[in-house]
Amino acid sequence: GKTETLLEVNNIEVIYNHVILVLKGVSLTVPKGGITALLGGNGAGKTTTLKAISNLLQAERGEVTKGSIIYRGDHVADLNPADLVRRGVIQVMEGRHCFEHLTVEENLLTGAYTRSKAETKEGLEMVYTYFPRLKERRTSQAGYTSGGEQQMCAIGRALMARPETILLDEPSMGLAPQLVEEIFTIVKNLNEQEGVSFLIAEQNTNVALRFAHQGYILESGRVVMEGPAAELRENPDVKEFYLGMG
Ligand code: ATP
Q1: Which of 150-176 are b and which e, b meaning 16 or more Cβ less than 10 Å from the residue's Cβ?
Q2: Index of the ligand 1 atom closest to the CA of residue 94
Q3: Which InterPro entries does the entry mention (predicted)?
């Protein structure tokens, strides 16, 4: 059958501080049940795109000045992040953002503020099934866990809201290759077994295109290439400039 579109970003422009034009008309779609990669180098506009979707630009003095953002047919550009979570969309910010002084489990529980007690209990079990490391570390203070465990904790915390779509910003950042592999494998399992859809901003093109179904490549605030991940992996320009195979 036809794939259902969850998220539709149409030709958005983002300006910081009223003058700095950073996104120059970005369009992308996130299909239900897919993993979509948003690729590009440092400063290409990946984080800005995710923040535009979750309405997190205000704190950065940024604003969407053109275009539209639609989730399940509704305009969502004016919803605050908490309302978006209730609609099923949650962002995991770059840099992990766990509460360092709380335990791993307390961190996970902070993600369940929209859920009932029974749902929270069920959510914890689900998170621990996918992240056995978090279960082992559940009573540890998050600030003393490894970078990989903190990234897992941030994803686990988002999962506690039972999102339909997760916007994941640079999950590989600062992690050893083996851990990056482990985290992307868990993402794939969540996608296949729980039906969670992902939009993943990544500089690590290689790993992202191995796990994603489709991808978009941003350069200086514009989408310069898009398509199924398997096609992008075989594209000569992608090979040369993004996969280091030139
Ligand atoms: P990175 O992987 O480094 O986060 P990115 O692709 O996510 O890169 P963005 O963080 O979206 O890129 O940044 C895009 C551009 O916007 C960069 O040139 C950056 O300097 C600029 N920018 C980001 N935040 C602000 C801000 N608050 N004020 C002004 N310019 C900003």
Answers
A1: bbbbbbbbbbbbbbbbbbbbbbbeebe
A2: 4
A3: AAA+_ATPase, ABC_transporter-like_ATP-bd, BCAA_Transport_ATP-bd_LivF, P-loop_NTPase
